[in-house]
Amino acid sequence: MPEHVTLMSPASLRVALSRWENGHTAPDLVHTRLLCSVLELSSADAPGPLDEQDEPGDDSLFGVLAHHTNSLRLLDRRLGAPFVRAHTADHVQALEAMWESRSGADRRSVALVQADTAALAAWEDLDVGDHTAADRHFGLARQAASRSGDSTLLAHALGEHAVMLSETGHARRALAQVRRAEALPGLPMRLRAWLAATRAQVATWCPGEAVTVRQAMTEAETALAHACPDDEAALPFLALNEIHLQRWNGHLLVRLGDPVAGPIAEQALAGLPAEFVRARAGQVLDLAEYAARAGELDQATARLASAAKAITEVGSRRLRYRHDLLARRVRELAGRR
Known about the structure:
Elements: H1 10-21, H2 29-39, H3 61-79, H4 81-101, H5 104-127, H6 131-148, H7 151-167, H8 171-182, H9 189-203, H10 210-225, H11 231-234, H12 242-256, H13 261-271, H14 277-293, H15 297-314, H16 317-335
Helix pairs in contact: 3-4, 3-5, 4-5, 5-6, 5-7, 6-7, 7-8, 7-9, 8-9, 9-10, 9-12, 10-12, 12-13, 12-14, 13-14, 14-15, 14-16, 15-16
């Protein structure tokens, strides 16, 4: 008997299959039945949901500390920066004290985790509009990455900081900083894809750089296509796959005023997992901006109302600022009719 279920889009299904194969998540009961049917397996052969499986353990110092950082990251993603920001900052400080008291391999393990955690703290600071704290945490992230000797973590911290620089009036400096990050040796292809997309984002803040934006996104797509699937587990601070890159592309095309931006952003939103609450709110803002540019003001207003609810839920001042600017613009356009 056929299964009457709504399937994911092909792009979303490719992402889901990759995550199931690599053990990051497990399929739900519906998809488990479908997979068993396709692969001619019995239900007894199928793994249970993730919360019924034994999680892979790593009781090393690095493993325990990194697990705590990743838990904070997942809480930030689901609940928003205001909920978790103080805990992340405390973790950064505890790691600094631990680094001072340790030696040898333990010291490097702590530095590796601190570089990731400090960058996370900085991003949360940026999200709530505390640029002073964000600058400090980005500085700590770069320092910890240098202590660890890890170019991947250093490149990530430089790239994230460049986003803040571009949004706070230092776009040219930000563009140069991303390019410095891209020049670091030994970077995995998934990170190279992320850096190219970051370069594209930063370039949208620089007048006359539309060609740079498009070229950088092409580079990002090429790099992601050559990325190793295992990079997802090795780079927990990067949420980058086909859906996320499509979301990013839609955002940048909206900023450029490209008429193809709307369908791209709409499709990316449909494939974006529900746990990315803040990212989904940003995508709805992209669609509101696209509608406003197209003169569809009623649709823009409806999108803004939808985004406002999610923005309030996660407490993002960064998104709220963008929402309020766009809402004011829509009101002005409506007043001219």
